[in-house]
Design a protein that fits this description.
Length: 837
């Protein structure tokens, strides 16, 4: 009996079915620096251009802000009171808080004329029985006329009524109470209500991240519809390997792409540093340029807050887990013009794979300057050191999902070598976000970031089991990487009307640059006895080749969100230019370039009762390196998606329900040339169709719920390697999840919180569909207690226990290639304490 062998290593590539692409070549060193500096200079020039205006507004803040006594001309159409107040607050650049039940069913006569801000609010609520008052902090509160605002729980129900928070300050990174977010920036790069977004988007809030104790990006999105988390199980913790709607997705940080070099330099951020995570599903090149077909996961930092807050925590768990965290934020002056935040953690633990460890130190400082209500500049930085990371290996199908006469392999099986294995990564970054409102309708923004990765990696990996069912053939790999990236995004946003049509127009220019060098080598390694492994065998360091890669992307885009009554029509287009230069040691440079136009259109209708049906079309592209048999450079991969759905946001309580149907197709995929198998052609195609249902609800202040269901039909529809008509490996047809979290607010158990969840993953297929992997159901749970309920001296302190895969289910997460499978995470139990003040 003969087994298949492979020398291909499971690199962090865009598509697991493709072999590694030929190394890319790099520009001469002077050119990328000049391009990066020129583009950075352009962004700084834009900031400098608006700075005099910003300073003028700052100097004049006492005499002519929107909130002062000066009258301005406003236009707010008559309609539901909540919509009218929100519209006016947005125009005036102020914050407003209102109880949804207090304004339910009330209508406003609208506004058309010259008023101060306070006069405008008074005119909008005339005859409604409510009033708007300005608090000492500058927030406008909606309350029953002559009544004090309700701050305590209702004495009869013991529950605080839900409050709708509307903020006109353009800060998408503000706190969100509970699990329900009502707006986001990932889908439109503007503060757009999720219900008006004609594409499926999910938001994981800070409360959900904390209560589920998410320690990886995979864990953070486990309960999100359309996402197949941990597609390589519990071994690949050093990379965020997951899929959206069956395809790879891109990760972003604060709206800018986390750029990788296509090999092993791939950024990874710790979820503790994040305020929330937005998951946008499907192609999105119209706003972001080259992008994977699955979508975008935007991780949004914990940034400075005007209210002082401090937190420290410690945590312990199985696998020798130890962790300490801290998060400090607040104003530096009495007027809150200068804000700071400092967030960090240190973690050490054994990996699930035998003999491996995880270690991490991360710190993220940030500073915000707000000279007035219209101007904000935030500077942020990151230093993250990962001295060790668990194995990036695999397990063979034999002894895991296929029969092996010697029995089953243990869930902590290790295919490497302790003396040879190493992984050390250092990440450092600095970035900025600048925003200035020129007036109540026009805003300019510029965002930028520099990111560095230095990495040393060596591993031994399995490549197939011999006919004796116990000898695992192995190879070695070693790579030393250095990568620097620059990402810039400059935007102008304007709000205006053309007759009855209201517009939110966004225009922008962005730039991405990557310069990477890596010494990579593959070598041989002695075989391993699966059932009597020797993890300390002599292995020579493989010979390495230096590869230098430089790439640039320029893009210009425009988007118009048009509103006519209850209709919202979104239209966008973008043009991109990309270029890559690759230099392999001992050979000359190879240049490749591409150009692409992408577009998007969507239509939403928002009913008064909170139901919003929508339909959309969107596209993406992704450059590909290499040439076909005739020497013609490969065109970019293209993807397009049709989506229809309905969203529902109840008016009486905080919740958002989404139902979406989509048809997503990828074209120009690389596959062996049918006439010349030594080369590749790009006639491959893959398809994903499905239905997603998701619910996020803060039923009361005591109950939070997250639920989802996903049906996926993902197949290769054109392929020359034998995959045509087969399902994509590791992608289940059915997924479902439910998580609920309850806090007892009254009685002897007041302060006790507990949560529980279940995650179901249906059957998946092996790489070539020759066998199926069993479905599995995982259970999570948590228990937390507020010690401040015991004694006022302990106010701000809590204790908690969190368990993931509580029943310790043994399962294989996927078999993503012919000879490679991955066990899923076993039971993880964490116990910790926090103190906040």
């Amino acid at each position: 009996m003969t087994r298949r062998h492979s020398r291909r290593h499971p690199a962090a590539l865009r598509d697991d079915r493709r072999p590694p692409q030929p190394p890319k070549r790099r520009m001469p060193p002077s050119r990328p620096r000049k391009i990066a500096l020129a583009s950075l200079g352009a962004s700084l020039a834009l900031a400098a251009a608006v700075a005099p205006t910003a300073l003028a507004f700052a100097a004049d803040a006492g005499s002519n802000p929107a909130s002062a006594a000066a009258r301005q001309t406003w236009r707010v159409p008559a309609g539901p009171l909540d919509a009218a107040l929100s519209d006016f607050a947005s125009q005036a650049g102020v914050s407003i808080q209102m109880d949804a039940r207090l304004v339910e069913g009330l209508r406003s006569p609208g506004l058309n004329g010259a008023f101060t801000v306070n006069e405008g609010f008074a005119a909008l609520v005339a005859g409604t029985g409510v009033e708007v008052v300005e608090s000492s902090s500058g927030v406008h509160l909606v309350r029953t006329r002559t009544a004090a605002p309700r701050a305590q729980p209702d004495s009869q129900s013991g529950q605080q009524l839900p409050t709708v928070h509307v903020s006109a300050q353009s800060n998408p990174y503000g706190d969100t109470d509970g699990y329900v977010a009502f707006s986001g920036r990932a889908a439109a790069k503007t503060d757009t209500p999720l219900i008006e977004t004609p594409q499926s988007i999910s938001v994981v809030t800070r409360d959900q991240l904390t209560q589920q104790n998410a320690q990886t990006l995979n864990a953070a999105v486990r309960y999100t519809s359309g996402v197949t988390a941990e597609s390589r199980g519990g071994t690949a913790t050093r990379y965020d390997l997951l899929k959206i709607r069956g395809f790879d997705a891109d990760t972003y940080w604060n709206g800018l792409k986390l750029i990788g070099n296509g090999m092993y330099s791939v950024p990874q951020l710790d979820p503790y540093l994040m305020e929330r995570i937005e998951v946008l599903k499907g192609p999105v090149s119209v706003l972001y340029g080259q992008a994977a077909a699955g979508g975008v996961i935007d991780q949004e930092s914990r940034l400075p807050t005007p209210q002082a807050q401090h937190e420290i925590g410690v945590q312990f768990g199985n696998y020798g887990h130890k962790q300490t965290t801290f998060d400090f934020s607040g104003p530096l002056d009495a007027d809150a013009h200068y804000l700071y935040r400092l967030t960090g953690l240190a973690r050490s633990e054994d990996g699930q794979v035998n003999t491996t460890r995880n270690e991490r130190i991360a710190i993220a400082p940030s500073f915000t300057w707000r000279p007035d209500e219209r101007t904000s500049l935030t500077l942020y930085a990151l230093f993250q050191r990962d001295p060790r990371s668990t194995s990036y290996g695999s397990v063979p199908p034999e002894g895991t999902v296929l029969f092996d006469p010697y029995g089953k392999l243990p869930a902590d099986f290790y295919d490497g070598d302790t003396a040879f294995e190493r992984f050390s990564r250092t990440q450092a970054s600095v970035g900025y976000q600048f925003e200035h409102k020129l007036d109540r309708n026009w805003t300019v923004r510029t965002n930028g970031r520099f990111f560095h990765i230095g990495q040393d990696y060596a591993s031994v990996y399995g490549s197939g089991v011999e006919s004796d069912y116990r000898t695992l053939d192995r190879y070695s790999i070693a790579s030393t990487d250095n990568m620097n990236t620059v990402a810039l995004d400059n935007q102008v946003e304007g709000k205006f009307a053309t007759g009855p049509l209201a517009h939110t127009l966004l225009a922008g220019f962005d730039y991405q640059h990557m310069a990477s060098s890596y010494r990579l080598g593959y070598g041989s390694a002695p075989p391993l006895d699966l059932y009597a492994p020797d993890y300390d065998q002599p292995i020579a360091d493989p010979a390495r080749t230096l590869t230098q890669v430089s790439s640039n992307q320029y893009g210009v885009y425009a988007q118009d969100q048009m509103r006519l009554g209850r209709f919202v029509f979104t239209l966008g287009g973008r043009e991109d230019w990309t270029s890559t230069t690759t230099r392999v040691e001992g050979s000359g440079p190879t240049d490749q370039s591409a150009r692409a136009f992408t577009k998007r259109a969507g239509l939403t209708y928002v009913f008064d009762n909170g139901i919003a049906p929508y339909a959309s079309y969107t596209e993406s592209f992704s450059p590909q390196s290499g040439t076909d048999a005739s020497g013609h450079p490969f065109d970019p991969e293209r993807a397009r998606q049709y989506e229809v759905g309905v969203k529902y946001q109840p008016t009486r309580w905080d919740a958002l329900f989404t139902l979406a149907w989509f048809d997503l197709k990828r074209k120009n995929l690389l596959t062996p040339d049918a006439n010349n198998p030594a080369f590749q052609s790009q006639v491959g195609e893959a398809r994903s169709r499905g239905v997603e249902l998701e619910a996020k609800a803060s039923v009361t202040d005591a109950v939070n719920v997250a639920a989802s269901y996903t049906y996926l039909d993902t197949k290769y529809i054109r392929d020359n390697s034998g995959l045509q008509g087969k399902f994509i490996a590791g992608v289940p047809q059915n997924q479902a999840s439910l998580w609920a979290y309850y806090t007892q607010q009254r009685g002897p158990l007041a302060g006790l919180s507990f949560g529980a969840g279940a995650r179901y993953t249906g059957q998946t297929y092996s790489y070539d569909n020759t066998y199926k992997l069993s479905s599995f159901l995982l259970v999570d749970a948590t228990l937390r207690y507020d010690l401040g309920r015991v004694s006022s001296r302990l106010k701000g302190s809590d204790l908690y226990v969190n368990a993931q895969n509580l029943l310790n289910k043994r399962y294989v997460a996927s078999c993503y290639y012919t000879t490679w499978c991955a066990f899923g995470y076993g039971r993880q139990v964490f116990a910790g304490a926090n103190y906040r003040w």
